[in-house]
Design a protein that fits this description.
Elements: H1 3-20, H2 23-45, E1 56-60, H3 65-78, E2 83-84, E3 91-94, H4 98-107, H5 130-150, E4 155-163, E5 177-185, H6 193-206, E6 210-219, H7 231-262, E7 267-276, E8 281-288, E9 294-305, E10 309-319, E11 321-328, E12 333-344, E13 346-351, E14 356-361, H8 364-378, E15 387-393, H9 398-465, H10 474-488, H11 490-505
Parallel strand pairs: 5-6, 12-15
Antiparallel strand pairs: 1-3, 2-3, 4-5, 7-12, 8-11, 9-10, 13-14
Helix pairs in contact: 2-9, 7-8, 9-11, 10-11
Length: about 500
């Protein structure tokens, strides 16, 4: 059997089954095909999609499991999106719905557990002693501070502990109020020193009698975040921070200059600065004898004698102009700078003849020019003892090449994956359309054949009931031939009758 016959046989089998199948089987086949097409279209439309992403915000934290379940069920009843943390003690909701959900749940009495500030005094308790009142006041203040600190960006959790000693009759023996704050930061984030100082001043200003020096801030790993309050240690820390700032500024100047001249990642700069924090005071007196003389004092002596008569002697004291200067030396002046500059030994040069990029070694003249640029950018002073060291060596480019290769592979994979998904969608849609077209044609063809066969069957029944005794006329001969055609080839007969009806209608 050749290929056209095989294809004809493949297409005739479904058609023959459709024509001979009862009505229930046809409806079942139509329903199954429609379900298959719908499932295929849905699967194709959902390809490449994922879980819906939304910006999360903490609705409540430090909840017990029972109340977390109650709030989760309430949010589900409201049709709101939410997520639970890994330990089940916090509920996350979309950031744009956080305020509305808090107001709505607060009206329903949530949360009942977790942090509770001054709300602790809303429930009146009998037989409340002064001690319990002070304890509740301290708890409320601590939790109010924790809630306020949680509003700072990148702070995941906060714990505040206040120590308020009992008042003493003697001022000298009165202990000071102290506070400690433990911060848990979001993954991979750190607070800047200015933010830590803000938290210290916030806690100090919120508690009566609490000084800034008595507030300690640590992170969840036990690292001290607040500044040391010892005067000597604080001064040393500030000097070290000032030295680092000066070094960073000078390194940034040279690095930005090198990046613009020889390209990014082709040089490395390190600067070491020695600052003089000693404070000096000197006094200077300058005498200026000029034309103007100021008489400070004058003494006159007069002598009288019979022989010489009277004699007068005068002694005058003059003041010389003097200038007094009191000079205070600046704190943190630069006493010495040393800089190390490392330059990539090779460079990429465009060859106009071959229209390609070639790798060449840097000349000593070019390295000397880079040294002069770095020296001028930092302000190196040889008389002060400053030093500049420039080294030319090949840089390790293995990581750069590997990263570039990974990026190219990822882009290629993403490109071909997108093409494959789009091709699969197109093929699926085409297959669905072909299936629908075949079903519609089969339904139309089957319904038409059934109607035509019913009409021919009624005509044949009427013809069989009649008895002909007279000789066959030309009309009867034609009718008999039509009957033979209907019995032997019902499909052709149906087509013939359809054509005749269409001609009569036209």
């Amino acid at each position: 059997m050749n290929l056209p016959d095989q294809l004809t046989d493949i297409t005739d089998r479904p058609r023959g089954w459709w024509e001979n199948a009862p009505q229930t089987q046809r409806l079942g086949a139509i329903g199954g095909a429609a379900a298959l097409v719908i499932a295929l279209v849905f699967a194709l439309s959902s390809m490449g999609g994922g879980e819906e992403e939304w910006d999360t915000a903490i609705l409540y934290t430090n909840l017990d499991f029972q109340e977390a379940g109650e709030i989760a069920n309430r949010l589900a009843d409201l049709g709101m999106r939410y997520r639970l943390s890994s330990d089940g003690s916090a509920i996350l909701v979309p950031r744009d719905e956080e305020r509305d959900l808090r107001l709505q749940l607060a009206g329903e009495g949530f949360p009942k557990s977790g942090r509770m500030g001054y709300e602790i005094f809303e429930e009146a308790q009998l037989a409340m002693t002064d001690f319990l009142q002070r304890v509740n006041l301290k708890r409320a203040l601590q939790e109010e501070l924790e809630e306020t600190i949680l509003g700072i960006d990148n702070v995941k959790n906060a714990r505040v502990h206040l120590v308020t000693p009992e008042p003493s009759l003697f001022t000298e023996e009165q202990n000071s109020v102290t506070a400690s704050v433990v911060l848990t930061m979001a993954s991979g984030t750190k607070l800047k020193p200015k933010h830590i100082n803000s938290i210290v001043h916030l806690v100090s200003a919120s508690v009566e009698g609490l000084e800034v020096e008595e507030v300690v801030v640590v992170d969840s790993e036990g690292n001290m975040l607040s500044e040391e309050h010892d005067p000597l240690v604080a001064a040393a820390n500030k000097q070290f921070q000032m030295q680092q700032q000066v070094e960073r500024v000078l390194e940034k100047k040279v690095q930005s200059l090198m990046d613009e001249v020889i390209g990014r990642d082709r040089s490395r700069v390190r600067v070491n600065v020695v600052l003089d924090f000693s404070q000096r005071e000197s006094t200077e007196t300058i005498a200026d004898p000029g034309q103007t003389r100021v008489v400070v004092s004058e003494e006159t002596n007069e002598k009288s004698s019979a022989e010489q008569g009277s004699e007068e002697n005068a002694v005058r004291n003059y003041e010389v102009n003097r200038t007094f200067r009191r000079i205070l030396g600046a704190v943190g002046t630069v006493s010495r700078i040393s800089m190390a500059l490392t330059v990539d030994q090779t460079k990429v040069v465009y060859n106009s003849d071959t229209e390609t990029y070639d790798v060449e070694d840097r000349t000593q003249a070019e390295i000397d020019q880079l040294r002069d640029l770095a020296t001028a950018a930092v302000g190196i002073d040889g008389q002060r003892g400053d030093e500049v060291s420039v080294y030319s060596m090949p840089f390790d480019k293995s990581q750069e090449i590997q990263a570039r290769k990974e990026v190219e592979d990822a882009e290629a994979q993403e490109f071909w994956t997108g093409i494959a998904i789009n091709v699969a969608k197109i093929l699926g849609i085409i297959a669905a359309l072909i299936t629908l077209r075949f079903i519609i044609q089969a339904i139309g063809r089957g319904v038409g054949v059934e109607e035509e066969v019913e009409v021919l069957g009624e005509i044949l029944d009427d013809v069989d009931e009649e008895e002909f005794e007279r000789p066959e006329t030309p009309h009867e001969i034609t009718l008999r031939r039509v009957q033979d055609i209907v019995r032997e080839r019902p499909e052709d007969a149906a087509k013939l009758i359809r054509t005749m009806l269409m001609e009569e209608n036209t």
